[in-house]
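Can't paste images in this forum, so I'm doing it all in text. The chain is below; anyone willing to post the predicted structure tokens underneath?
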Amino acid sequence: MSRHRAKTFHLLPIAVLTLLVGILAGACANPGSGPDGGPYDETPPRIVSISPPLGQLNTTQKRIVFTFDEGIKIESASEKVVISPPQLQTPDFLVSGKRITVSLVDSLKPNTTYTIDFSDAIVDANESNPLGRFAYYFSTGESLDTMEVGGYVLAAQNLEPVKGILVGLHSDTTDSAFTTKALERVARTDSRGHFSIKGVAPGTYRVYALNDMDGDFKWSRGEALAVLREAVKTASYPDVRYDTIWHDSIRYDTIIPVPFTHYLPDDVVLYSFTEKSSTRYFVKTQRDVPEWFRMYFTAPSTTVPKVTGLNFDAEKELVELRSPGNDTITYWLRDLTIPSVDTLRFAYTYDAFDDSLGHNVTLTDTFSLTPKMTMKRRNKQKEEEMEKWQKELEKRHKRGDFSQETPPPTFISVKARGGARLPLMQNPLIAFEEPVMQIDTSAIRLSLKVDTLYLPAPMELVHADGPVMSLTVRGEWRYGQQYRLDVDSAAFVGVSGNVNKASKLEFSFGDEEDFGSVFLNLPGCDTTAVVELLVSDNKVERKGRCQSNGRVDFFYVKPGTYYIRAFIDANGNGQWDPGEFASKTPPEKVYYFPQKLEVRANWDIDQTWRVDAVPITRQKPDEITKQKADKEKTTAHEKNVQRLKEKGLQE
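Text version of the structure:
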């Protein structure tokens, strides 16, 4: 099929025919150029008719037919095409040749303006030339509503544009409307998080965003939401935009002013979040290996669950490690020789939410847990390892080697985090793969390297009381110093009764000149603001609370590229928190410094940052924005320009 649309032919003047013959002759004489199908069609599809007509009043027709002058298609209909008022029953769309037929299934409301916003989804079938942003509208009453409300939806936690979320209006400005009534007018956000709600009657509205998982156009708990607390009032004024008129495929003729109506508000910003789950439910169990099992809950509780063993003594055999809030609890077995280790049966008493009563109650459930790796399989593996060791022992004996007569002992795994040229702010860490029940601090020694000797150095081991999974090593660190941490065997005794083997950890701190510093001045900042130094959007390198003088200082920063984010810690817990609809609590406000920072060794960055100097929709740097705007498609006009370049007809 030809790439260009068939045109109506007319008799051409002799001069034009002569020119065409010359071009064709030149093309034939050039062995590097042959027929290429001609220029691409740049003409967008044109609407020939609409039934009922655009802007029709007093209509009850639910079947709308659009006829075009060429074959067309609809791209990404589910993302781009939005009907208002929202339809509870999905309309039928039929695209056939030059025709689009839309059949509404819901009953039509009286005295209501209906809009079908196609955005830029309609394109021609050959070159995908877009019709342009097109919205069809009709009214079941005597008048049309033409106001619009526009803006952006951003993720509250990280200012990412939210694509495809539903945005809607309520003329009922009470909070209860969002949970009890379907949104009156709706739109969906594009890849930039932008939305435009059309066909709005003049008036005052509340604006909401909703990840409508159940399709009822009302908010239900668990769905992401955004709420604009202030009501908005529609308005409009005459405005002018400028369009380009092309002379031919490569030259524009003129730029002309085009009058249009500018609708307000067009700068609404909504912050989308999902509420923290405050209702506590038991989620699941996990038992991968015989050594431990884990219990998961949806929300924290101050009540510590109780395990009552039915085929073992839970009080004697279990060691528990609880997360803050008791929402994830891991239970370790002290003794793997008890007969019940392969199947633990126990009663579990815990705090959970009762839907009928509307508050937390104490529940008791019975569990029977079998590990994925059973003790039978574990013992078989040990037997195979012992058989392998015995064969190796026999081989050594034949060689006269009697140096290793007993099987190697089993040690607990110890991992140390250290390294070379650490910043002074970073302390070495010792981590374990099972809870450590006993620590012999006299068997752990820190030494400072002086010339070629290691001399004793002061230190302390920081850990919680009771069983621990990690230790932090603190010392009097200095620039350029090198240290060694010696850990004797049996310094740590794990819950299994096994001990560690002797090990050494060497680490050093870089010279002062190896690091940079970032000094931030935030005018108007108070101690509720927490500032984060980011390596990427998901990785926080350092964070600090703003001082009363508006300063946040980061010393000893490794050279590299960083980004800055701040949030207003309204509840003072040191972490970002989402909002809560019922209590009218908004998500904690987030800001980004709009540029990346290049930290260099032995260099200070002193940066003043006014968090509201750049509009919030343009603050987040592109380098760490994951939701990118859709790439602009190569237009037929651009293809023609490239074609002429390749044929050497354009300089």
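The radius of gyration is 35 Å. DSSP finds six helices and 44 strands in the chain.
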